[in-house]
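Query structure, 478 tokens:
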């Protein structure tokens, strides 16, 4: 494809600055030259994204020749991301390498103008003019195609040459300085950043439940940009439920996909932040701080809207940025390790679990008889959370007295309704656990107190003998 006409058109449109007959530089000319530099940077990035490296390099060469004064001598150019023996780019070749890279003489250059910039804003602190030179100092705010913002401190000196055009003869750019005292991370800041992460997770879930996927995704993108440091580079993010070649999410796109899913590049993701989370608690084992970073390790306890609890082991490293805000540069999350030996179930384990279930049923009934429905329901909720595995997923629960489209209770809410009733979503449930059960031992038979089989232990047998009955006999109790 012949890029000549396109490049020329972009070039002419970008770098035309109205020429005044006077030699003195005006403030309007300085501002126009600044805007032209920003527009040119965006043009190089856009051409790179659309047409590739060769076209972007051709555009960059035209920009440098039009915007900088290398044809008149050395230019005092100190780029933002240059360092060591290559900090200062006084030659055209050095400037070109900085903007588009791919020059063996400048091996550390990756191409500043190829970083997918989409917008450049310039906020001047002041402009100084003296005859045919104009010098500005202020901030340049750059936004890339992902919406990530970078702020730099910048000084330019423009020189009006004989043809009346302004060219850059000095260009000094740097990241904003952060005083050492302000860059130190405190424990309180780490704790606040952790709480903010938990609150954000709940907020995304709530937004999803109330407003749908699009709103939740938009919020998730804002959260990732605010909480993680992808705008500064790769983030060391290992999510809980990621596996295979998608275990590590070092890019923003990978992080957003993990939280809200629906990205064909990450087909395993179902959206961790969409799992109806209602509460997040953080229990730190320890926090280590060093300079501008703080690393924490401990448990994060997540509760969803059904009351199911998930516990993960989590490490975070937060780094304080130039804006004084903490962002995550490392996030490792995993399910707690369970030793192999403890995973083996013995017969005694089964018998003990059965006895516990029976005792719990009696406990709910007794609580109901003594203290009423609210207390019994609270006990039932604790019993379900302790005895059933709803916190790990659907449970294959088919109750005795359930039928129709409510026969199977794979959710915690369905189980709770079966045991205590009072849920309009399950209108046929009358509360199986509220039927005044008396016996909790699975080796004995348990009946409601109005119809008991007298095989319920010595105390029950003694009571029945006093009434003229015998254990093993069916009897109706009013």
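Result returned for the query:
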């Amino acid at each position: 494809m012949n890029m000549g006409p396109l490049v020329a058109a972009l070039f002419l449109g970008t770098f035309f600055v109205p020429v005044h007959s006077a030699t003195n530089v005006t403030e309007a000319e300085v501002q126009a030259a600044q805007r032209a530099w920003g527009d040119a940077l965006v043009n190089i990035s856009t051409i790179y994204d659309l047409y590739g490296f060769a076209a972007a390099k051709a555009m960059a060469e035209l920009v440098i020749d039009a915007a900088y004064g290398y044809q008149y001598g050395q230019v005092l150019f100190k780029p933002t991301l240059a360092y060591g023996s290559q900090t200062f780019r006084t030659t055209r070749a050095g400037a070109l390498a900085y903007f588009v890279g791919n020059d063996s003489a400048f091996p550390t250059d990756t191409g500043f103008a190829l970083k997918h910039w989409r917008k450049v804003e310039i906020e001047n602190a002041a402009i100084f003019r003296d005859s045919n030179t104009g010098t500005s100092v202020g901030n340049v705010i750059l936004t890339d195609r992902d919406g990530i913002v970078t702020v730099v401190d910048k000084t330019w000196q423009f020189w009006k040459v004989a043809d009346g055009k302004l060219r850059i003869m000095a260009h000094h750019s740097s990241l904003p300085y952060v005083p050492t005292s302000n860059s130190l991370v405190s424990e309180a800041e780490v704790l606040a950043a952790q709480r903010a992460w938990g609150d954000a997770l709940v907020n995304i879930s709530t937004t999803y439940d109330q407003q749908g996927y699009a709103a939740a995704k938009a919020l998730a993108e804002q959260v990732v940009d605010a909480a993680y440091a992808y705008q500064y580079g790769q983030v060391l993010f290992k999510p809980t439920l990621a596996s295979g070649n998608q275990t590590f999410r070092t890019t923003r796109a990978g992080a957003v996909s993990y939280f809200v899913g629906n990205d064909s590049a990450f087909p395993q993701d179902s959206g961790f932040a969409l799992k109806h989370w209602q509460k997040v608690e953080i229990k730190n084992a320890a926090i280590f701080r060093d300079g501008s970073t703080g690393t924490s390790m401990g448990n994060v306890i997540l509760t969803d809207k059904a009351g199911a609890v998930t516990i993960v082991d989590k490490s975070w490293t937060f780094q304080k940025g130039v804006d004084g805000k903490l962002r995550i540069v490392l996030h490792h999350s995993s399910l707690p390790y369970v030793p192999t030996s403890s995973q083996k179930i013995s017969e005694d384990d089964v018998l003990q679990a059965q006895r516990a279930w029976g005792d719990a049923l009696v406990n709910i009934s007794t609580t109901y008889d003594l203290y009423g429905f609210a207390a019994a329901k609270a006990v039932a909720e604790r019993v379900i959370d302790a005895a059933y595995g709803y916190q790990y997923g659907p449970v294959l629960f088919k109750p005795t007295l359930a039928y129709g489209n409510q026969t199977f209770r794979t959710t915690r809410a369905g189980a709770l309704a079966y045991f205590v009733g009072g849920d309009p979503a399950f209108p046929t449930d009358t509360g199986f656990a509220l039927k005044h059960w008396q016996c909790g031992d699975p080796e004995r038979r348990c009946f409601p107190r109005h119809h008991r089989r007298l095989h319920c232990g010595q105390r029950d047998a003694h009571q029945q003998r006093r009434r003229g009955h015998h254990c093993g006999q069916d009897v109706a109790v009013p």
